[in-house]
Amino acid sequence: MSKVSVDFGLCESNGVCDGIIPEVFHLDDQDYLHILEDEVTPANRDRILEAVRQCPRQAISIMEEPA
Fold first, then answer.
1. Over the stretch 2-58, which tens digit does the pLDDT of each residue have?
2. What one-character-per-residue DSSP string does 3-34 give?
3. Is residue 67's pLDDT more than 90?
4. Whole-prediction pTM value?
5. What is the DSSP pairing of strand 33-35 with strand 60-64?
């Protein structure tokens, strides 16, 4: 199973990921990023990969977890 991971030490809360896939990422009113759904599925994979590519700080990754 694949899961979304954010390195919050790198994240600047630019909100690019929230704009690409708000079902997974949410930037709140205090500019804190939340992961709403961490599971990577066939339905959301392409947009999550786009968020990984577009992150200005390269803070987002996809982690493979053992089955």
1. 999 999 999 999 999 999 999 999 999 999 999 999 999 999 999 999 999 999 999
2. EEEE-TTT-----HHHHH-TTTEEE-TTS-EE
3. no
4. 0.93
5. unpaired
Domains and CATH numbers, the chain: 2-64 (3.30.70.20)
- Distance CA(43)–CA(39), nearest Å, equals 11
* CB neighbour list of residue 39: distance below 8 Å, 6 or more residues apart: 1, 2, 3, 4
Tokens 């600047």: give the residue: 12
Q: How many of the other CB atoms lie within 10 Å of CB of 4?
A: 22
Q: How buried is residue 13: exposed, middle or buried, by Cβ count under 10 Å (0-12/13-18/19+)? A: middle
The number of beta carbons lying within 10 Å of the beta carbon of residue 18 is: 19
How far, in Å, are 9, 25, 60 from residue 17 at the CA level?
16, 6, 9
